[in-house]
Amino acid sequence: xxxxxxxxxxxxxxxxxxxxxxxxxxxxxxxxxxxxxxxxxxxxxxxxxxxxxxxxxxxxxxxxxxxxxxxxxxxxxxxxxxxxxxxxxxxxxxxxxxxxxxxxxxxxxxxxxxxxxxxxxxxxxxxxxxxxxxxxxxxxxxxxxxxxxxxxxxxxxxxxxxxxxxxxxxxxxxxxxxxxxxxxxxxxxxxxxxxxxxxxxxxxxxxxxxxxxxxxxxxxxxxxxxxxxxxxxxxxxxxxxxxxxxxxxxxxxxxxxxxxxxxxxxxxxxxxxxxxxxxxxxxxxxxxxxxxxxxxxxxxxxxxxxxxxxxxxxxxxxxxxxxxxxxxxxxxxxxxxxxxxxxxxxxxxxxxxxxxxxxxxxxxxxxxxxxxxxxxxxxxxxxxxxxxxxxxxxxxx
Length: 397
Ligand code: FEO
Known about the structure:
Helices cover 35% and strands 24% of the residues. By secondary structure, the protein is α/β, with parallel strands linked by helices.
């Protein structure tokens, strides 16, 4: 058990080995942690559990560090199994009437996962429980990132237990941000936001304003994954405010797939044209690039250009995943274009063009295609295409 601040303690688990999350959807190159907290007072309250593959280890920690009989209540801030998954195993050691505080939607999701008649107590934003010398005030975090998400503010310790919000899939030697590598933390927090929260940015903007209006004197932000923010914790809140505002860093990402390198040559020529106009450009082959990392790059880009050679009157299959991610993440205010080589029809660039449009990207140039292997004239045409795209990047707000 590690003291976070005053009567708030961390007794979570570090998962150094985790490399894929949400099934196999999301890459987690630096592992993760499942941060359970204990608020010690006249009544001891446990906040969240851990992912159920770790439940035996979790139960041993609880029994050793706290003792089951010393837990007087549980807060389940979010029922996704990486936080609520060990609740069933834990409840086998606690009285059936142990109060379990959760959001109104949490009642639904806990019942849906465990099908048990427990003492579920729904709480809403502003509801407060007193546990002795301290209070816990609840804040509904709806859609950050499930309808049931909730946070708890412990006072007078002034610790915000924010669950998924402000966290990262990151396993660090220290549980504190100020003792961890700042570049790694920033990279993982951004990746978490881009991959998990970005589709919900309109709701996040509203929620951040709502939290600000509550005027909570937050001194520590303790999420349920990754590191705890105790040194200027509002930095991560400010980052969220930036990332939720149609974020980009002004560069272009070209994602392409290729069979015999003709489309790769086009990608490099387009990038040359873009860079000649003073706009930075990154190039990724989508068939060999981690899709979660590629999505993070696209989240940070102002322009997204997709390229593929034509196969079966369409594009190569890695492009289907890229388009699916772009569509699902509902990017706003990004511009796009499409290109590709072909033998017999120009289907791939045209379908990528349609796919980008269908995903809400402002496609600013007609698709460009070349036959078989690009000639020097084709390469020149691609360079000009890149130059024109860079001008559009600079013009667009
Ligand atoms: Fe970390 Fe939404 O679970």
